[in-house]
Give the backbone structure.
Amino acid sequence: MTDRQWEPVFLTPYFQQNLWGGRRLAEEFGFAIPDGAVGECWSVSGYPGRESVISDGPYAGRTLSAFWEEAPDFFGSLPEAYRAAGYPFITKIIDAREDLSIQLHPDDAYAAEHENGARGKTECWYILDCPEDCKLVLGHHAGSREEFARMIGEGRWSRLLRRLPVRKGDFIQLEPGTLHSITAGVLLLETQQSSDITYRVYDYDRLENGKPRPLHIAQSIAVAAIPARDPARLVRHTDGDPAGKLTELVRCGYYRVFHLPVLSRAALDGADCFRICTVTEGEGWLIMTENRRRPLHKGDSFLLPAGAGRMEVAGRLDLIVTEPVLPV
Ligand code: ZN
């Protein structure tokens, strides 16, 4: 702890206007968002053109990808190819005032081959708020690829789409190929691979600037997981997670995600690599040392440096903490 050179780094998000977005990012988080419908807060992103920016300290004003290049020690000892591919994740808060399109994403292998070497997209959601009787589109009822294609062709959406009930605090891991849609009234935190490849299957025949948005039917049929994954293993409730310690929500080939509910105080340790922390509820303090602390508010995101010593979080809050899983 005595030779620690890095402080946690706080970020200012990039905001994205979307047809289906709302105003909750301003109303409930206090973010200074652009006018109109804003659906996405890219809290921690190094995605070209949609980057978060370091808010203060010696690197204030740098984009996350510039920081990734300039300060490799902060992120830990990473394989060269991993580092060369750029900052690996996007952490977003999504405000869906309306339903999002029915979509899915490819895996790395398909994206590399068909999308100019881009990353695929594994993603996960932590539900921050949703209506009482909320159901998300998660999977489908087709038994074979032929049946999946036929039901899409005939527009039999109510037969095809599987809708699963969710509630506030639920966590869902979406492997590539999982048919999905976030439905109206849902506010969630998304952690995903840094990729923007989405195959849209159905957009409710909506128009954007007088035109329908493009669909990607052939790609969707090619990458869909069929049969769909077991619903019982998709949705995990977190309301029983113990306060004051990290509970692992998922570990996949890209990331580990933990839930940290805090009622008064909790330890927050560094790991071998960097960690991403987002305050999803409440407020309190990040206590770095005896006499250095900084306030935490709902919606704040920060990075912990690799090898950081023990810090504490104090207050009444809820955090999601993510760390990379490196390729073997
Ligand atoms: Zn998605």
